[in-house]
From TrEMBL:
<keyword id="KW-0812">Transmembrane</keyword>
<dbReference type="InterPro" id="IPR014878">
    <property type="entry name" value="THAP4-like_heme-bd"/>
</dbReference>
<dbReference type="InterPro" id="IPR012674">
    <property type="entry name" value="Calycin"/>
</dbReference>
<feature type="domain" description="THAP4-like heme-binding">
    <location>
        <begin position="62"/>
        <end position="209"/>
    </location>
</feature>
<keyword id="KW-0472">Membrane</keyword>
<keyword id="KW-1133">Transmembrane helix</keyword>
<feature type="transmembrane region" description="Helical">
    <location>
        <begin position="21"/>
        <end position="43"/>
    </location>
</feature>
<dbReference type="InterPro" id="IPR045165">
    <property type="entry name" value="Nitrobindin"/>
</dbReference>
<protein>
    <recommendedName>
        <fullName>THAP4-like heme-binding domain-containing protein</fullName>
    </recommendedName>
</protein>
<dbReference type="Pfam" id="PF08768">
    <property type="entry name" value="THAP4_heme-bd"/>
</dbReference>
Length: 224
């Protein structure tokens, strides 16, 4: 009798529950249609590349520095001047070449090395070793370490055959005999196809009190 009584009852559904169920189902359908539309638009309307995209996705940003690559040598045309030292001439060899790509980072660099010697005595003066690269926006970065106890991080801009760099950060061993450098600018300019000029300006802890002074100029000939 009990089972017969239950079997004869009509199902009871609250109207408010039914309404909520319908609304929920409608929302699911709308979301599904929206996702489907996004999927269709993504695969049937490819993105049109813009100038900004070209900067971000440039696969070879280092190509803008091709004119700087090579072996450059100045036998007698280097000149250094500073208030605390005698003006002198020097020779320098500058080598800028493609560096192996690290598998871990995938970043591309150019090796950067400079070796200078006294023009008159042939005494060794200084070395610089480091890397130069270009980020996707076109900013150039040069990182160097020298045997004078300094390491530098320089950033700059590139225009046609001219690279202008400015010191962004610097490290110095505490016992270096050279004065701390506060500011540094260097400019590379391709004068001719086989002639490169580097001009350096800087400010140390003592000179000048403000602004920058010319420090060195070198004119190289390309030998390789």
């Amino acid at each position: 009798m009990l089972s017969s009584s239950f079997g004869s009852r009509q199902p009871f559904v609250r109207a408010d529950c039914l309404a909520e169920t319908v609304i929920f189902a409608s929302a699911i359908v709308e979301m599904s249609m929206g996702l489907f539309l996004i999927f269709v638009l993504y695969f049937t309307h490819p993105h049109v590349a813009t100038a900004n995209d070209a900067k971000v996705f440039n696969k070879d940003p280092l190509s803008s520095l091709n004119w700087l690559k090579g072996v450059w040598r100045a036998e007698y045309s280097g000149k250094v001047f500073w208030p605390t030292i005698p003006t002198m001439t020097f020779g320098e060899e500058l080598i800028i070449q493609e560096a192996p790509v690290s598998v871990a980072s995938g970043m591309r660099f150019l090796n950067f090395s400079a070796r200078a010697w006294s023009h008159t005595t042939l005494d060794h003066l200084h070395d610089e070793w480091g890397y130069i690269t270009v980020d996707p926006t076109g900013k150039v970065v040069l990182m160097t370490a020298g045997n004078n106890g300094f390491s530098t991080y320089e950033e700059g801009t590139l225009s046609k055959n001219t690279l202008k760099l400015r010191l962004a950060d610097i490290g110095r061993v505490s016992f270096s005999r050279d004065l701390p450098v506060k500011e540094l600018e260097r400019t590379f300019t391709l004068k001719k196809q086989n002639r490169l000029e580097q001009w350096q300006r800087m400010r140390t802890a003592t000179h000048p009190t403000e602004g920058l002074l010319d420090h060195a100029i070198v004119v190289y000939e390309k030998i390789a």
